[in-house]
UniProtKB/TrEMBL annotation:
Molecular-function annotations in GO: 3-methyl-2-oxobutanoate hydroxymethyltransferase activity; magnesium ion binding; methyltransferase activity
Name of this protein: 3-methyl-2-oxobutanoate hydroxymethyltransferase
Entry EC number(s): 2.1.2.11
Naturally occurring in which organism (per UniProt): Heliocybe sulcata
Signal peptide: none
Pathway: Cofactor biosynthesis; (R)-pantothenate biosynthesis; (R)-pantoate from 3-methyl-2-oxobutanoate: step 1/2
Reaction(s) the record says it catalyses: (6R)-5,10-methylene-5,6,7,8-tetrahydrofolate + 3-methyl-2-oxobutanoate + H2O = 2-dehydropantoate + (6S)-5,6,7,8-tetrahydrofolate
Biological processes, Gene Ontology terms: methylation; pantothenate biosynthetic process
Physiological role: Catalyzes the reversible reaction in which hydroxymethyl group from 5,10-methylenetetrahydrofolate is transferred onto alpha-ketoisovalerate to form ketopantoate.
């Protein structure tokens, strides 16, 4: 059975029109119109092979983070090639001040939700801080949980040559690994903040050597975060696996942004590499304040369209029985 057939069975069972009417929260395919949904109708399941073909043909790879069912579903419907359950989850979704606070169980909970919505994009999850550092065995155990319980297809690990044995171990047992070099947010304390990496020759060489070592260890792709664009271009040209940049310039094989950053939904610091493609924060502000105002002024709800009627005789009978 193909994955599409499976997803058709598990996500969208054929409901009778009557059953459908009562499930107001059921995701409706019919509501999706326009280019994006036509595109998704024609799209196939993205695999590692497709990602390598995209790199070969120079077709940019679009990766987006997702943290729950609706954001996962949006990645699926609107053309993302890779959905990443990033550990930025800690900050943008759970309100922690650092990704280092995120536990594996919290990550698993969100992976399951994203996996229910994101079917066609290749699905990757960050291994949380501490879940792959104690030993390759521990990393295998935790990565297996992300695959089995979380429903993801690959894991992403931050680090350089020091994690190459772990990457080798995971890939050897069939768990695809996306490496992540350059700025490593899980090490912000040791690095004294979130700083652009590879700006001097020695640091650039270190980032470059990390990327080479992790490709050699079997990584199917490498994320390059916050490095000079010329270094991003150089690493992309030297590797034979796709690079995904975030603040690594325009010449990487693909780009990734955090959902809340590209939607302008994140209230915290805006890194230089962030471009806001929509303004959800303003829409949320408008929506919530209009709702609160309508409640306070009794403009919401209306009797006619937003309330339920009761048969008059039933109502009289009800009153007769009431003391
Ligand atoms: N909302 C959000 N977006 C992200 O991209 C992101 C998270 N959260 N949380 C986890 C990590 C942390 N990341 C960050 C956080 C801050 C900078 C940052 O402030 N960079 C400075 C660089 C300053 C310099 O070295 O000159 C910048 O201004 O771009 C970069 C990446 C990336 N990830
Ligand atoms: C920004 C991306 C690459 C990430 O690692 C995350 O979302 O945590």
């Amino acid at each position: 059975m193909t994955r599409n057939m499976l997803s058709a069975l598990s996500l969208r069972p054929a409901l009778s029109p009557v059953a459908r009417r009562w499930m107001s929260a059921w995701p409706s395919d019919k509501k999706e119109t326009g280019i994006a949904s036509e595109r998704s109708a024609r799209r196939k399941k993205v695999t590692i092979q497709h990602l390598h073909q995209m790199r070969q043909s120079g077709t940019p790879i679009a990766m987006v983070t997702a943290y729950d069912f609706p954001t996962g579903r949006a990645c699926d419907s609107y053309g993302a090639d890779i959905t990443l359950v990033g550990d930025s989850l800690a900050q943008v979704c759970l309100g922690y001040d650092s990704t280092t606070k995120l536990t594996l169980d919290e990550m698993l909970h969100h992976c399951r939700a994203v996996a229910r919505g994101s079917k066609l994009p290749f699905l990757v999850a960050d291994m949380p801080f501490g879940s792959y550092h104690t030993s390759p065995e521990e990393a295998v155990r935790n990565a297996v949980r992300l695959v089995q319980e979380g429903g993801v297809e690959a894991v992403k690990l931050e680090g350089g040559e020091e994690i190459a044995p772990t990457v080798r171990r995971l890939t050897s047992i069939g768990i695809p690994v996306m490496a992540h070099v350059g700025l490593l947010p899980q090490r912000h304390t040791a690095l004294s903040g979130y700083r652009v990496q590879g700006k001097d020759a020695a640091s650039a060489r270190s980032v470059y050597n990390s990327a080479l070592a992790l490709e050699d260890a079997g990584a199917f792709s490498v994320v390059l975060e916050a490095i000079p664009h010329i270094l991003g271009t150089h690493i992309t040209n030297k590797l034979s696996v796709p690079t995904i940049g975030i603040g690594a310039g325009p010449n990487t094989s693909g780009q990734v942004l955090v959902w809340d950053d590209l939607m302008a939904r994140w209230h915290g610091h805006k890194a230089k590499f962030v471009r806001r493609f929509a303004d959800v924060q303003t829409e949320e502000m408008k929506g919530v304040s209009a709702y609160v105002n309508a409640v306070k002024t009794r403009a919401f709800p209306e009797v006619v369209n937003e309330s339920y009627e009761m048969d008059e005789t039933e109502w009289r009978q009800f009153l007769e029985g009431v003391v």
